[in-house]
Amino acid sequence: MLAYLYEERLLDTRFDLRGNRGGAALSAKFLNSGHILGSAGVSLSFRENGSDKSFFFTSDTNVNHQTIIPGATYPDRVDNLMIETTAGADPDAELYTRRSEELRLGEAIEQTLRRGGAVLIPVFALGRAQEVLALIQRYKDRGVIPHDTPLYTAGSMRAVAGLYDRTRESTPRLNPEFEVEQVAQLRVPRSRSRMQESVDEPSIHVVASGMLFERTLSNLLATMIVGDERNSVFFVGYAREDSPGGILLEAERGDRAILSSEIGEQTINCNVDRFRLSGHSHRMELVELVGRLNPTNVVLVHGETEAQSWMREAIESRYRDVTVIVPECGKEIIL
Length: 335
What we know:
This protein has helices at 98-114, 128-141, 156-166, 192-199, 217-225, 244-250, 283-293, 305-318, and strands at 15-16, 26-32, 40-48, 51-57, 80-84, 118-122, 151-153, 186-187, 203-207, 232-235, 256-258, 265-267, 271-274, 297-301, 323-325. The protein is of the alpha/beta class.
């Protein structure tokens, strides 16, 4: 017999954590973190030395609205804050707004289609995929791109879309009436010959993986289109430098690069660009969030060393009364 090992809790509704043998008061509530479907920050309230205290973990967080998911909800103030630092080493993200990037992506897709090219948008199957599909539907509805442009998808992202739709009334949404599965989509053909035919016409392919890892559909499609200057590969999320996606982003037009060890070097002739449509807040938004929540202690997590170092310096220079902690793996922290 299968049974859940957890209890369901409503967002923004406090619940007791003491358990049957608990003594000191301890309660929690989940808050929408604005990242992807189901992502939540955790707010803890407790008594310590006769005083009320609070702790908040942001989780992966986004202060801004996306296409489907609204921006995060935060407490008014906390004593202790644990905050993600994913974008701490990305200064370029501060230069863009989501609105400007959405407009720029729409224009770039339209230009590619107008010159007879195919657009490949590599995505993470959960979160980015559904947001991008909603955005493409918006482009069609507003006449940015032709309404009859073929849109190809495949894999688990289609199943995840169903999950998004089934929970649209019970989870945070900008428009609960919108359904991802109502976006007209074609399945990416299975055979290579038909797959090649699909990219030989003006079309959009939204597939995983987001970093073009080898032996994924996005990698295979990329190898099919990078040699044609009419085509485009548009990244909408993070791509690690040593991944095929990172390699393609660093390549100049005309460069030779290896995206697939099976195929070997290819000449990169297509248009390649990155659009800042991340599910994470950029680093200055995180620093400003620290000021907004006004904690005594800040614990930096979920980021590379460079990202955490920048965040630490920025917080300490702006908020001199805040103690910033960069935890070591396996070491206990006392706040």
